[in-house]
Amino acid sequence: MKTLPAILVLGLAALAPAHAQTPAPIAAVHYGSTVDLGTGMAHFALQFDRAPDLFTVDAVSRQADTFQFWTDTVAADPIASTDAGVAGAGPLGTQAVLTAVDIPSTGKLTYIWPQDPGYTGPRDSGGWGIVEAQGAYVLSGDTVTFDVPLSLLRAPDGKFYYGFETYQYGAWAGVDYFGEAGKDYWVTCVPEPSQALLLLAGLAALAAGLRRRRSSPRACG
Q1: Which candidate, 165, 178, 154, places its Cα nearest to that of 33?
Q2: Which of 5, 13, 22, 47 could make an S-S bridge to 30, C-beta 3.0–4.6 Å?
């Protein structure tokens, strides 16, 4: 019996069902924000492809599912601008970080003011900077909603950009989502794959290799 080529083996592996106890990382399907200048609040709504498990943690306290936001009143890619600022390679002062990683211990979101390497005071658990506040959220099925004071976003006029990522037990899910205050986004629709498409996906993955890819939302049409 001939041995299957490695490229075909990878394609066939894509046909195998995932382990029942290890669901795929959560992915956003719909998200958006609204701004109320009268109350000075921004409202966010995130709909995922399944209900996120924000409370189960592993042996080193990493959540089964979680997410983190970056905002900036100037840069359209707040993730990159905050990374650069915290590393001392760019300006800070217009950004904020909102994270769900403390939910298992506090039951709340954590709001952080990013700081450059010269800051020597206490930092949040992720090392971004100063913990300014914690806020409530609502989880209803597959949707998370929460309100954030515009003052914590450094956006008194209600204008800001944001980006967010999802994680599974500490591992990035592979997609960055981006948005702008006051807008609504649907993530690109993906049709149910056939067995043939799954095989092709395995072949394409081998050919392309592994690399980090950033993805922007597009309207389903």
Answers
A1: 178
A2: 47
116 token code pair? 């450059």
- Phi, psi values for residue 107, rounded to 5°: 75, 10
φ, ψ of residue 200 to 5 degrees: the values are -65, -35
User: Which backbone phi and psi does 32 adopt, to 5 degrees?
Assistant: 180, 180
Amino acid of residue 20: A
pLDDT-derived band at 188 (thresholds 50, 70, 90) equals confident
pLDDT tens digits, residue range 191-218? 445 444 554 555 455 444 444 444 444 3
Note the pTM of the prediction, 2 decimals: 0.78
Q: Of 75, 68, 30, 74, nearest to 183 (Cα)?
A: 30
Question: Domains of the chain, with CATH numbers?
Answer: 6-12+23-208 (2.60.40)
Distance, CA of 70 to CA of 44 (rounded, Å): 13
